[in-house]
Amino acid sequence: MRVRWRVSLDFGRVHLRPLEKRDQRAWLQLQQENRSWLGPWEATPPDGYSRPASFPAMLRILHEQARQGLGIPFAITVDGRLVGQVVVSGMTLGSARWAQVGYWIARDHAGRNITTVAVALVCDHLLQSRQLHRVELAIRPENIASLRVAEKLGFVEEGMRRRYLHIASAWRDHLTFSILAEDVPEGIMARLLAAEADGRIVLPR
């Protein structure tokens, strides 16, 4: 069964849309410019496996998974410029109804709550429009910036998964976090807007 998965999500200057072929040049440039920034957190295939050989190959895999209802690849843009990515993976329906979300952003756009807003928009889409029950994040304990995103969004820490993912050429422990539909009936973006109204956060507008 093929799933209609293409959707655009917006807040202020932050726009999320499907990652597309036209993003190849900008995506590759971001990866090159941010190699040292992203390198410690990059997924790497363990021995005996290989990653997609090119951007088009990667995109074909991501789009096919999306058509099968297994994930969604989002491009993060600000004022029309590609600045990062959010990838939904492991989408499961039936009695589970959960997914995992991963993300990255260019160094020159970090620290502006762009990632926070992007992940909130995606999670609201998953929990409300796609009617999932649970969204998970898996974060290396050394990744302070990513841990801060989970904290600001109200994710609940559930514990350590030993040697959970192959990152930067080794199996790495990850802290896992979750948020449930009943945790945020009003939506995560509504929480962020309330925090902005109270002066606890500044959102990109």
Description:
The structure is a single chain. Helices cover 31% and strands 31% of the residues. Strand 4 (81-92) and strand 5 (98-105) form a beta hairpin. The N and C termini lie far apart (38 Å). The model has no long low-confidence stretch (mean pLDDT 95). The chain has 205 residues and is an alpha+beta fold.
Write the layout of secondary structure elements.
Blueprint: E1 9-11, E2 14-18, H1 24-33, H2 35-38, H3 55-67, E3 72-78, E4 81-92, E5 98-105, H4 114-129, E6 134-139, H5 144-153, E7 156-167, E8 170-180, H6 188-197
Parallel strand pairs: 5-6
Antiparallel strand pairs: 1-2, 2-3, 3-4, 4-5, 6-8, 7-8
Helix pairs in contact: 4-5
